[in-house]
Amino acid sequence: MIQxxxxxxxxxxxxxxxSAPTHDPAFLFPDLTQAELDSFSELLAPNHYVPAMNRLxxxxxxxxxxxxxxxxxxxxxxxxDKPRTAPRMRNLNNRVGEWLEAAGAGFDKVTHxxxxxxxxxxxxxNTVLKDGExxxxxxxxxxxxxxxxxxxxxxxxxxxSDMAMDNSWNDSVKPVVEAGIxxxxxxxxxxxxxxxxxxxxxxxxxxxxGYRLESEGxxxxxxxxxxxxxxQILKPELNTAYCVLSEVARETRKRVLEEASERGxxxxxxxxxxxxxxxxxxTEDGYRFEGAExx
Length: 295
Description:
Layout: E1 2-7, E2 10-23, H1 25-28, H2 34-44, E3 49-50, E4 55-67, E5 70-74, H3 96-102, E6 112-114, E7 127-130, E8 133-136, E9 142-146, H4 147-159, H5 168-178, E10 182-185, E11 191-192, E12 196-200, E13 209-215, E14 218-222, H6 231-234, H7 246-263, E15 266-268, E16 278-283, E17 286-291
C-alpha cells in the first residue's frame, strides 16, 4: 500500500487508503453519456474503469514528500472512525497510521500537512479519535490550508450542509484550527517550504490549490482534484457532480493540460487508479494520459 519514487532530491511516496471500483459514472460525471464512456473504454480499462461493473475506479491516497528535514503530507484522505454518509467512507478502520510510519511519516514525524482543498476525502486524517474527542493526528506539524477555500466553506456550512463536506468540518477541520496549528495559504503565496510553488487551480472548489514540486531540474505537480479520472483528460470539458464553479473548472483543466504537456511535468492527481501518476501527451485531437510506472 506504499510506493516511492524520486523527484530530484525529494522522495515522494503514495500511501493508498483504498482503491476500488466505487463510482457510478452517471453520478460522478452527469454530462458523460454511456456511449462516450464506451468509446473511451479501451483507454480506461482495467486500471481506471471496469466495464463489466460499469464502475469507475477511484483511489484515496496521501502523498508524502520528504526532502531535507521536511516530512510533508499533501492531503489526508478519509480517515478512520469518521461518521460519513457514503458507505465506502463510513467508519473506516484501516492501517494508514502504520503505512505512514513505514514510509517515514509517522504521526510524530510529519512537519507539514498541506490541504489542497477542504473536502471530506482530503482532510480526514487531520485528526484521530482519542478518548471520545477529535484531536490533531500530527501534533508536531503545521497544517497549511487554502484561505480562499476555507473562507468559502466556512460560510457555506454556516448556511447549509454540503454533501462534499459531510460533517468533516466539525471532526477534521475545526479541531486543528482550534488547536492553533493552522497557517492559511493565500492564492498568491508563491514558493513555500523551499521546494513547493503554490498554484491556484479553482473550479472544483473556489479556492483549490495545486503544488508544484521542483528539485534538481525535475518537477511534479500535485494537481488535487482538477482531474478525478483520466476520462477528464480525454474529455477536458467534463466536470464532476462536485465541481462548484463549472466554467472555471473547465478553464483550469484546459490550462493544466496545456502546461503539463508542454513542460513534461509528472502529474500527481489524488484519485487515479494505478499507476496513479503520469504524463500528459498531446495528440492530434486532444490529450491522453500516459501512466508513469513506479520503480
